[in-house]
Amino acid sequence: MTTLDEEDRREYYRIDDMIALQIKSLPAAQALGKEVLLDDSPLFNLLSELHLSEFESQHLLRQLGERDRTLAAFLKVQNKRMDLLSQVMAQSLLGEIGAPQPVIISEGGIDFQHPTPLPPGSHLAVKLVLMPQALGLLLRAKVTHCDPKGSGFDVGTEFESMTDAQRQLLARYILQKQAQERRLAREQNDGLDT
């Protein structure tokens, strides 16, 4: 029999991915807060803010495109330039955070390997750098399970207190990765058929 928590987590599409990930314990006061977490790294905070502001302006760009195509085209080019800058910033951050590692991620949480046990119910700050979009997110998470696996531990978490923009950015990233996986599978199947 499945619990309500397990059913809630299953409503999200999960993907296997390789991402740069950094985990820190969160003090109780910060764990219960609703404000967006800030990182010690100003570069990471800038990267996060860049994507959040780009996301928040998308509807304005669409409205502008309906009225002035030339201006909308110019702004799309500027947006592309900012995307390239964010990729440069993300590459710099990978040195700080570490090499990408295998995870299972969804809008609801993330599963990862960790060298030390993390007690279920404990609160974490989870720093993610998702490539190639160079998306930087710092999210609150609660440990749902921690099981021994090999020389470390398999840790499952559930995201908490995400803003709508954070949730939608993560959902868009997951949908893009899912579409990319389907495209690659289709290309491989087409290659086998010829």
From TrEMBL:
Q: Which Gene Ontology MF annotations are present?
A: cyclic-di-GMP binding
Q: Which domain of life is it from?
A: Bacteria
Q: Which InterPro entries does the entry link to?
A: PilZ_domain
Ranges for the PilZ domain? Answer: 79-176
Q: What is this protein called?
A: PilZ domain-containing protein
Species in which this protein is naturally found = Pseudomonas brenneri
State the taxonomy lineage: Bacteria, Pseudomonadati, Pseudomonadota, Gammaproteobacteria, Pseudomonadales
